[in-house]
Write a structure and sequence with these properties.
This protein is mainly α and about 280 residues long. The chain is about 75% helix and about 0% strand. It is globular and about 60 Å long.
């Protein structure tokens, strides 16, 4: 029988999740702009985000925050239910959670990316995306890319954090358990963020530039490969500096989300009154 997660996990999802999703909106815009602009530096991209003030910087953040309520109930409580359901397997639970996460967040995230695209297009005087993704529609182009990215992104907190904490304990045995946990989360999230960066940028391209094209002259797979080559390889075939820029953008965004959420969840679990747990007798 699958157990209902304890109240602190639910509160972390309902309250902490939307808060985190809204607060990282400017970072999400910067990451999307990275898929649209190969010439700008990290500071240049964030400069574009805040060019017209906080209004544009947080544009599209409300739909993501709303999606954050069911979304982080998936990332938090549902993950623990899936883990119990699969016999304690973190890996299996991450896979199931990633699919559910995409079903919840895909519409709002794609809408947010297209808002970013249109703001840039308006400044440049180029065509915008006329019909934006419905934030409540969980399906569309790049869905599979979104799921794959989420599997990698979530594995930092749920799979690789504990091994990272064990390594930190060996290196610095005197570190407090709380500090070790936070650093373990951060190290694991940074590593998976770097690996998931190309997948995220490919997803961002698929819901912005690809959608803005009125006529597709290339099949999706060929166009996607060409995007990755143009984004990450120089004319001589060597790795482009843009790869490092995009990895840095992804690390800042993803590691911030999961480290903040991990801290909120673990703090609530550690401090939650024992009298306010479910009666399982």
């Amino acid at each position: 029988m699958v157990k209902i997660p304890d109240p602190p996990y639910i509160v972390a999802g309902v309250v902490g999740g939307p808060f985190v999703e809204y607060m990282v909106t400017p970072l999400r815009h910067g990451l999307t702009l990275g898929a649209l602009d190969k010439s700008a530096s990290i500071l240049g991209l964030y400069g574009q985000v805040f060019r017209n003030g906080l209004g544009d910087a947080f544009a599209g953040g409300i739909p993501m925050a709303k999606a954050g309520v069911p979304g982080f109930l998936v990332l938090g409580p549902a993950f623990h239910m899936f883990k119990d359901w699969t016999g304690g397997s973190n890996v299996a639970a991450v896979g199931l959670t990633a699919i559910c996460e995409t079903l919840v967040f895909y519409g709002a995230e794609s809408y947010n990316a297209q808002v970013t695209y249109n703001l840039k297009a308006l400044r440049n005087g180029t065509p915008t995306i006329a019909k934006l993704q419905n934030p409540l529609n969980p399906l569309g182009g790049g869905f599979g890319l979104n799921v794959s990215r989420n599997v990698l992104a979530m594995s930092g907190l749920r799979v690789f954090s504990k091994p990272s904490q064990d390594i930190i304990e060996q290196i610095k045995p005197g570190m407090s358990p709380t500090a070790r946990t936070v650093w373990g989360d951060l190290v694991a999230n940074v590593l998976v963020s770097a690996v998931s960066s190309p997948l995220h940028q490919l997803y961002a391209w698929s819901v912005t530039t690809r959608v803005a094209e009125t006529k597709h002259t290339e099949p999706f797979v060929k166009a996607a490969v060409n995007f990755l080559k143009a984004q990450y390889l120089t004319s001589s075939g060597s790795l482009s500096p843009i790869a490092g820029r995009d990895i840095s953008l992804r690390v800042v965004y993803n590691a911030t989300i999961f480290t903040m959420y991990g801290f909120i969840e673990r703090t609530l679990v550690a401090t939650w009154p024992s009298t306010l747990h479910w009666n399982r007798s």
